[in-house]
Amino acid sequence: MRNKLAFFGISSVLVFGGLGTQITAQTAFVDVPSCHWAVEAINQISGETSVTPAQNASTAANAFRQVFEGMKCADPNWTLQFIQNAPDSLRALIAGDPLKGFSLAGVTATVSSNTAKVNFKLNITLKNGLNVARIGNAQLVADKKMGWKVVYSSLSALNLPVFPK
């Protein structure tokens, strides 16, 4: 129940804080990937908006999280809209559903003009059963449509099997 309550808290902020945007036909919220349990209900109540997402530390951290949410859903369209300069091969890798799950801890973000840096502790579980942990940071750049995009080279520098170099 805690996750459901946290989700609705985030959605309320998005609705009233003006972070909703025209992202995909699937959802108008930048924190609700296509496989989320509430996506159908959100789609019914959300409607289209044309508000530009805020470019603050919170939305930078959220953009980083959404990369992994989309991978967990095996949804390359969701994931790739949050990544800048992703290689073409990443689409097929994500569609192949490599990620069973992930967790993020200690996530902090700092913003400087049109760039941001997200520090984190990441644990991923691959479908083959392999668990991988990393402590690191990712670089982000401002994006008018999404708020932020994670720079792919900072993801591939983590040496994770889901982000080939």
Care to describe what's here?
This protein is α+β, with helices and mostly antiparallel strands and 165 residues long. It has one domain (2-156): Nuclear Transport Factor 2, Chain: A (Roll), CATH 3.10.450. Helices cover 35% and strands 28% of the residues. It contains six helices and five strands, in the order ααααβαββββα. A five-stranded mixed β-sheet has the order 1-5-4-3-2. A hairpin with a 2-residue loop joins strand 2 and strand 3. The radius of gyration is 15 Å and the shape is globular. The protein starts with a helix and ends in a 9-residue tail after the last helix. Residues 1-28 have low confidence and may be disordered.
Which helices and strands occur, and which strands form pairs?
Elements: H1 2-17, H2 39-46, H3 57-72, H4 76-80, E1 83-84, H5 89-95, E2 99-112, E3 115-126, E4 131-143, E5 147-151, H6 152-156
Parallel strand pairs: 1-5
Antiparallel strand pairs: 2-3, 3-4, 4-5
Keywords:
165 residues, Nuclear Transport Factor 2, Chain: A, globular
Radius of gyration: 15 Å
Report helical residue fraction. Answer: 25-40%
Unreliable stretches: 1-28
Q: Kindly estimate the percentage of residues that lie in beta strands according to DSSP.
A: 25-35%
Query: Reading side by side through the largest sheet, how are the strands ordered?
Result: 1-5-4-3-2
Shape: globular
Q: Please report the first level of CATH classification, the CATH class.
A: Alpha Beta
- How many helices? The count is 6
CATH topology: the name is Nuclear Transport Factor 2, Chain: A
Structural class comes to alpha+beta
Order of helices and strands: HHHHEHEEEEH
